[in-house]
Amino acid sequence: MRTLFSWLGHKRSQKPTYTEPMPHPESFVTFEQLGKHWHPFLPTFSYPGAYINEHHRFFAECPQKGALIDIGIKGFLLSADALKLYELAYFSRGDVLELGCYHGLSTHILAMAICDSGTQKKLVTNDLFPEAIDITGALLQKHHYDSFSSFRCGYAADVCRQLVGEKRHFECVFIDHSHTYEAVTAVCKVLGDIVTPGGMCLFHDYNNEWNADPNNHDYGVWQAVQENLPRELFNFYGSYGCTGLFRRKIVPTQ
Q1: Domains of the chain, start order
Q2: How far, in Å, CA of 103 to CA of 72, rounded?
Q3: pLDDT of residue 18
Q4: Confidence (pLDDT) at 13
Q5: Which helix (H) or strand (E) holds 158?
Q6: Which residue in 104, 38, 101 sits closest to 71, CA to CA?
Q7: What is the model's pLDDT at position 252?
Q8: DSSP H helical segments within 21-78, as ranges?
């Protein structure tokens, strides 16, 4: 069986050619539909072939444990989630921010895509727990992704506000720090200050049936995004696997 690490030696791709992102409004998930169907991966950007490169293809063909990919790193991603993460980081024209890393599965995918793109963008990863940062940092160092990666420890919304104060902006943000309504809401309210016009926000567990369970107070991602992500600033762009993708609007110049 081929593993992720047996693919790591392939030749780096050419630098990506940016194209206008393609929305998939037909994949919108209503409250009643949550978790009943996972939409497949569809490309947001244009590129020849079904996959960007062999690393991207890997996440469509890699081993799975149940519905989740199983590549030797602890984490909870569907194949469609992983494919979208790689694509967004690869085509991002600016820095990438990750909120919540756990043991580094999503971080590794984002870092790999950035490295494969051959560009100078940076990855900033946040987690509330120092031990998660230590585990993920060791993983990135092992695979030589640490030179363009940095970590922030703390509550996600607080870290976002710190980054705003430092005048940092991001073209791509992956939000997976918490599933609670309150924690996701706090981040939604600051994303408009940190995401560049045209930038992407990908919410994990947006399409999760537990969001619709009134007795599960640990989940409220869909509700938090629908009620608190500013609609005057963000448009829905698609749902892939259990994720929800939103794009920051570009205000026309006068």
Answers
A1: 52-248 (3.40.50.150)
A2: 11
A3: 79
A4: 53
A5: helix 156-165
A6: 104
A7: 61
A8: 54-61
3 state DSSP class of 82: helix
Q: How far apart are CA 71 and CA 41, in angstroms?
A: 19
At 224 the pLDDT is 98
C-alpha 239/C-alpha 245 separation (Å) is 6
The answer to whether 156 and 221 are in contact (CB under 8 A) is no
Give the strands of the sheet with 234-240, arranged side by side: 149-153, 123-127, 96-99, 170-175, 195-203, 243-248, 234-240
pLDDT digits (tens, 9 = 90+) for 176-211: 999 999 999 999 999 999 999 999 999 999 999 999
Task: Give the tokens for residue 204.
Answer: 């994990």
Low-confidence ranges of the chain (pLDDT < 70): 1-14, 252-254
* CA angle centred on 83, ends 241 and 120, rounded to 5°: 135
